[in-house]
Amino acid sequence: MSLLSKPLNIALLVLACVCSVFFLRLQTLQERNKRLQETYAQQRAASDQRQQVIERLQQQITHLNEQQRQSAEAQAELERLAQNRLATLRKLEDENDQLRQWAAHRLPAEFGRLRDRDALSGANAYRQRLRDT
């Protein structure tokens, strides 16, 4: 062997070792990059799902707030109608002496007992109530 070829062989061997180390390092980095990309994709999908849930909940809140507003409006309207009817009844009662006398009398006992009975829970309960009376 010539004098020049021995150092060249050593240099090539060192170069091959360095290249091999860099190649292994590159493979490691590529595998790590792949794992990180998969993790990122999973995290992104989970984040998207959470965002969809948040948006659905916000829509439900908006819908419930609208229903609550409509319910409050309906309640106010019903209260206004009830007050109007009550005022009309009082006005009629004040105008009509016969109606005032009728309203002052108590209801017959049979009507009062209607409120004292428990609610029926089926046909058997109805038959039992008929037997008891």
From TrEMBL:
Bilayer-crossing regions: 6-26
Q: In its keyword annotation, does this UniProt entry include Transmembrane?
A: yes
Which residue windows are coiled coil?
26-98
Q: Which UniProt keywords apply?
A: Coiled coil, Membrane, Transmembrane, Transmembrane helix
Q: What is this protein called?
A: Transposase and inactivated derivatives
- UniProt organism field: Zymobacter palmae
